[in-house]
Protein backbone atom coordinates (compact mmCIF):
# COMPACT_ATOMS: atom_id res chain seq x y z
CA UNK A 1 0.00 0.00 0.00
CA UNK A 2 1.22 3.52 -0.60
CA UNK A 3 2.01 5.78 2.33
CA UNK A 4 -1.17 7.89 2.31
CA UNK A 5 -3.34 4.79 2.66
CA UNK A 6 -1.96 3.74 6.01
CA UNK A 7 -4.61 5.91 7.66
CA UNK A 8 -7.52 4.14 5.97
CA UNK A 9 -9.24 1.86 8.51
CA UNK A 10 -9.19 -1.90 8.03
CA UNK A 11 -11.77 -3.27 5.59
CA UNK A 12 -15.26 -4.32 6.67
CA UNK A 13 -15.26 -8.11 6.35
CA UNK A 14 -18.05 -10.68 6.19
CA UNK A 15 -16.20 -13.88 7.08
CA UNK A 16 -17.03 -17.19 5.44
CA UNK A 17 -19.26 -19.44 7.57
CA UNK A 18 -16.81 -22.29 7.01
CA UNK A 19 -13.30 -22.44 5.51
CA UNK A 20 -13.06 -19.63 2.94
CA UNK A 21 -12.21 -21.04 -0.49
CA UNK A 22 -13.21 -17.91 -2.44
CA UNK A 23 -13.43 -14.16 -1.89
CA UNK A 24 -15.29 -11.11 -3.14
CA UNK A 25 -13.49 -7.76 -2.86
CA UNK A 26 -16.08 -4.99 -3.23
CA UNK A 27 -15.27 -1.26 -3.53
CA UNK A 28 -17.78 1.36 -2.38
CA UNK A 29 -18.72 4.60 -4.15
CA UNK A 30 -17.52 8.17 -3.61
CA UNK A 31 -18.06 9.54 -0.11
CA UNK A 32 -19.16 6.17 1.28
CA UNK A 33 -17.47 3.45 3.37
CA UNK A 34 -17.32 -0.32 3.08
CA UNK A 35 -19.87 -0.87 5.88
CA UNK A 36 -23.08 -0.49 3.87
CA UNK A 37 -21.89 -2.86 1.16
CA UNK A 38 -20.65 -5.43 3.68
CA UNK A 39 -24.20 -5.47 5.09
CA UNK A 40 -25.71 -5.80 1.61
CA UNK A 41 -23.33 -8.66 0.74
CA UNK A 42 -24.03 -10.36 4.10
CA UNK A 43 -27.62 -10.60 2.87
CA UNK A 44 -26.61 -12.69 -0.18
CA UNK A 45 -23.59 -14.50 1.22
CA UNK A 46 -22.49 -18.05 0.45
CA UNK A 47 -20.90 -20.10 3.27
CA UNK A 48 -17.53 -20.68 1.56
CA UNK A 49 -17.01 -17.07 0.41
CA UNK A 50 -15.29 -14.27 2.34
CA UNK A 51 -16.47 -10.71 1.49
CA UNK A 52 -13.99 -7.85 1.87
CA UNK A 53 -15.21 -4.24 1.67
CA UNK A 54 -12.26 -1.84 2.03
CA UNK A 55 -12.67 1.83 2.88
CA UNK A 56 -11.23 4.44 0.52
CA UNK A 57 -8.74 6.97 1.90
CA UNK A 58 -10.08 10.47 2.62
CA UNK A 59 -8.93 13.06 0.07
CA UNK A 60 -10.10 16.36 -1.45
CA UNK A 61 -12.37 15.76 -4.47
CA UNK A 62 -12.37 18.35 -7.27
CA UNK A 63 -15.95 17.52 -8.32
CA UNK A 64 -17.18 18.42 -4.82
CA UNK A 65 -15.40 21.78 -4.50
CA UNK A 66 -12.30 20.09 -3.02
CA UNK A 67 -14.18 18.83 0.03
CA UNK A 68 -12.36 15.93 1.66
CA UNK A 69 -14.25 12.63 1.60
CA UNK A 70 -13.58 8.92 1.09
CA UNK A 71 -12.48 8.56 -2.53
CA UNK A 72 -10.42 6.00 -4.43
CA UNK A 73 -9.06 8.73 -6.74
CA UNK A 74 -9.90 12.33 -7.63
CA UNK A 75 -12.94 12.97 -9.82
CA UNK A 76 -12.67 16.18 -11.82
CA UNK A 77 -15.96 15.97 -13.71
CA UNK A 78 -18.65 13.49 -14.73
CA UNK A 79 -18.96 14.12 -18.46
CA UNK A 80 -17.39 11.64 -20.91
CA UNK A 81 -14.73 14.17 -21.95
CA UNK A 82 -13.79 15.29 -18.40
CA UNK A 83 -10.12 15.22 -17.47
CA UNK A 84 -9.22 12.16 -15.37
CA UNK A 85 -6.89 11.65 -12.42
CA UNK A 86 -4.62 9.20 -14.24
CA UNK A 87 -1.94 8.97 -11.52
CA UNK A 88 -4.58 8.53 -8.81
CA UNK A 89 -6.46 5.83 -10.74
CA UNK A 90 -3.26 3.88 -11.40
CA UNK A 91 -2.17 4.15 -7.75
CA UNK A 92 -5.62 3.05 -6.56
CA UNK A 93 -5.47 0.02 -8.90
CA UNK A 94 -2.08 -0.92 -7.39
CA UNK A 95 -3.64 -0.74 -3.92
CA UNK A 96 -6.45 -3.08 -5.02
CA UNK A 97 -3.88 -5.48 -6.53
CA UNK A 98 -2.17 -5.49 -3.09
CA UNK A 99 -5.50 -6.50 -1.50
CA UNK A 100 -5.77 -9.37 -3.99
CA UNK A 101 -2.18 -10.41 -3.23
CA UNK A 102 -3.04 -10.40 0.48
CA UNK A 103 -5.89 -12.88 -0.09
CA UNK A 104 -3.61 -15.06 -2.24
CA UNK A 105 -1.18 -15.12 0.71
CA UNK A 106 -4.15 -16.11 2.90
CA UNK A 107 -4.61 -19.18 0.67
CA UNK A 108 -7.31 -18.05 -1.78
CA UNK A 109 -6.02 -18.22 -5.38
CA UNK A 110 -6.70 -15.11 -7.48
CA UNK A 111 -8.91 -17.10 -9.88
CA UNK A 112 -11.24 -17.68 -6.90
CA UNK A 113 -11.59 -13.93 -6.30
CA UNK A 114 -14.31 -11.71 -7.78
CA UNK A 115 -13.60 -7.98 -7.84
CA UNK A 116 -16.61 -5.67 -7.68
CA UNK A 117 -17.74 -2.18 -6.89
CA UNK A 118 -20.38 0.51 -7.06
CA UNK A 119 -19.99 3.79 -8.98
CA UNK A 120 -16.39 5.03 -8.48
CA UNK A 121 -15.58 1.66 -6.87
CA UNK A 122 -17.05 -0.19 -9.86
CA UNK A 123 -15.00 1.96 -12.20
CA UNK A 124 -11.84 1.08 -10.26
CA UNK A 125 -12.72 -2.64 -10.21
CA UNK A 126 -13.10 -2.67 -14.01
CA UNK A 127 -9.85 -0.77 -14.56
CA UNK A 128 -7.95 -3.03 -12.14
CA UNK A 129 -9.27 -6.27 -13.67
CA UNK A 130 -8.30 -5.14 -17.18
CA UNK A 131 -4.76 -4.10 -16.18
CA UNK A 132 -3.70 -6.69 -13.58
CA UNK A 133 -1.66 -9.82 -14.27
CA UNK A 134 -3.67 -11.61 -11.56
CA UNK A 135 -6.22 -13.95 -13.13
CA UNK A 136 -9.59 -13.19 -11.53
CA UNK A 137 -12.88 -15.13 -11.37
CA UNK A 138 -15.01 -12.20 -12.49
CA UNK A 139 -16.03 -8.56 -12.07
CA UNK A 140 -19.25 -7.04 -10.75
CA UNK A 141 -19.55 -3.45 -11.99
CA UNK A 142 -22.55 -1.53 -10.63
CA UNK A 143 -23.70 1.92 -11.85
CA UNK A 144 -20.25 2.78 -13.19
CA UNK A 145 -17.97 3.50 -16.14
CA UNK A 146 -14.52 2.47 -17.43
CA UNK A 147 -11.86 5.01 -16.38
CA UNK A 148 -8.98 5.98 -18.70
CA UNK A 149 -10.77 4.23 -21.55
CA UNK A 150 -8.56 5.95 -24.12
CA UNK A 151 -5.50 4.28 -22.56
CA UNK A 152 -6.73 0.83 -23.64
CA UNK A 153 -5.89 -0.58 -27.07
CA UNK A 154 -8.49 -0.75 -29.79
CA UNK A 155 -9.61 -4.35 -29.97
CA UNK A 156 -9.01 -7.28 -27.62
CA UNK A 157 -6.66 -7.03 -24.65
CA UNK A 158 -3.93 -9.64 -24.36
CA UNK A 159 -3.80 -9.98 -20.55
CA UNK A 160 -4.76 -12.93 -18.36
CA UNK A 161 -8.31 -11.58 -17.98
CA UNK A 162 -9.25 -11.42 -21.67
CA UNK A 163 -11.95 -14.08 -21.02
CA UNK A 164 -13.11 -12.64 -17.68
CA UNK A 165 -16.85 -12.81 -16.91
CA UNK A 166 -18.34 -9.35 -16.22
CA UNK A 167 -21.71 -8.51 -14.72
CA UNK A 168 -22.48 -4.85 -15.36
CA UNK A 169 -25.64 -3.36 -13.84
CA UNK A 170 -27.21 0.10 -14.13
CA UNK A 171 -30.41 1.90 -13.18
CA UNK A 172 -32.23 3.49 -16.12
CA UNK A 173 -33.02 6.62 -14.05
CA UNK A 174 -29.49 7.25 -12.72
CA UNK A 175 -29.03 11.05 -12.51
CA UNK A 176 -25.36 10.91 -11.44
CA UNK A 177 -23.81 8.30 -13.75
CA UNK A 178 -26.26 8.26 -16.67
CA UNK A 179 -27.27 4.94 -18.24
CA UNK A 180 -25.46 6.08 -21.41
CA UNK A 181 -22.14 5.71 -19.50
CA UNK A 182 -23.06 2.11 -18.75
CA UNK A 183 -24.03 1.45 -22.37
CA UNK A 184 -20.80 2.96 -23.74
CA UNK A 185 -18.79 0.99 -21.18
CA UNK A 186 -20.40 -2.32 -22.08
CA UNK A 187 -19.68 -1.73 -25.80
CA UNK A 188 -16.04 -0.95 -24.99
CA UNK A 189 -15.76 -4.04 -22.77
CA UNK A 190 -17.19 -6.26 -25.51
CA UNK A 191 -14.45 -5.05 -27.86
CA UNK A 192 -11.73 -5.83 -25.30
CA UNK A 193 -12.77 -9.15 -23.77
CA UNK A 194 -14.87 -12.10 -24.97
CA UNK A 195 -18.27 -10.42 -25.60
CA UNK A 196 -20.06 -13.65 -24.67
CA UNK A 197 -18.78 -13.14 -21.11
CA UNK A 198 -20.21 -9.62 -20.69
CA UNK A 199 -23.71 -9.38 -19.18
CA UNK A 200 -25.44 -5.98 -18.98
CA UNK A 201 -28.54 -5.64 -16.80
CA UNK A 202 -30.65 -2.52 -16.39
CA UNK A 203 -33.28 -1.90 -13.73
CA UNK A 204 -36.41 0.10 -14.42
CA UNK A 205 -36.83 3.17 -12.23
CA UNK A 206 -33.57 2.61 -10.33
CA UNK A 207 -31.54 5.74 -9.62
CA UNK A 208 -27.89 5.88 -8.45
CA UNK A 209 -28.43 3.07 -5.98
CA UNK A 210 -29.06 -0.66 -5.75
CA UNK A 211 -32.20 -2.79 -5.48
CA UNK A 212 -33.19 -6.31 -4.38
CA UNK A 213 -33.44 -7.52 -7.98
CA UNK A 214 -29.90 -6.30 -8.70
CA UNK A 215 -28.53 -7.94 -5.53
CA UNK A 216 -30.15 -11.23 -6.58
CA UNK A 217 -28.41 -10.95 -9.98
CA UNK A 218 -25.12 -10.27 -8.16
CA UNK A 219 -25.67 -13.33 -5.93
CA UNK A 220 -26.38 -15.53 -8.96
CA UNK A 221 -23.21 -14.29 -10.69
CA UNK A 222 -21.06 -14.89 -7.58
CA UNK A 223 -22.54 -18.36 -7.02
CA UNK A 224 -21.94 -19.28 -10.66
CA UNK A 225 -18.31 -18.14 -10.82
CA UNK A 226 -17.27 -19.04 -7.24
CA UNK A 227 -18.90 -22.45 -6.74
CA UNK A 228 -17.99 -24.49 -3.64
CA UNK A 229 -14.88 -26.63 -4.22
CA UNK A 230 -15.29 -29.12 -1.39
TrEMBL record:
The keyword S-adenosyl-L-methionine does not apply. It is found in: Cell membrane; Cytoplasm; Endoplasmic reticulum; Nucleus membrane. Its EC number is 3.1.2.22. GO terms for biological process: fatty acid metabolic process. GO terms for cellular component: endoplasmic reticulum; nuclear membrane; plasma membrane. The keyword Membrane applies. It is an enzyme of class 3 (hydrolase). It catalyses: 1-hexadecanoyl-sn-glycero-3-phosphocholine + H2O = sn-glycerol 3-phosphocholine + hexadecanoate + H(+); S-hexadecanoyl-L-cysteinyl-[protein] + H2O = L-cysteinyl-[protein] + hexadecanoate + H(+); a 1-(9Z-octadecenoyl)-2-acyl-sn-glycero-3-phosphocholine + H2O = a 2-acyl-sn-glycero-3-phosphocholine + (9Z)-octadecenoate + H(+). Its main location: membrane. Keywords: Acetylation, Cell membrane, Cytoplasm, Endoplasmic reticulum, Fatty acid metabolism, Hydrolase, Lipid metabolism, Membrane, Nucleus. Acts as an acyl-protein thioesterase. Hydrolyzes fatty acids from S-acylated cysteine residues in proteins such as trimeric G alpha proteins or HRAS. Acts as a palmitoyl thioesterase that catalyzes depalmitoylation of proteins, such as ADRB2, KCNMA1 and SQSTM1. Acts as a negative regulator of autophagy by mediating palmitoylation of SQSTM1, decreasing affinity between SQSTM1 and ATG8 proteins and recruitment of ubiquitinated cargo proteins to autophagosomes. Acts as a lysophospholipase and hydrolyzes lysophosphatidylcholine (lyso-PC). Belongs to the AB hydrolase superfamily. AB hydrolase 2 family. This is Acyl-protein thioesterase 1. It comes from Caloenas nicobarica (Nicobar pigeon).
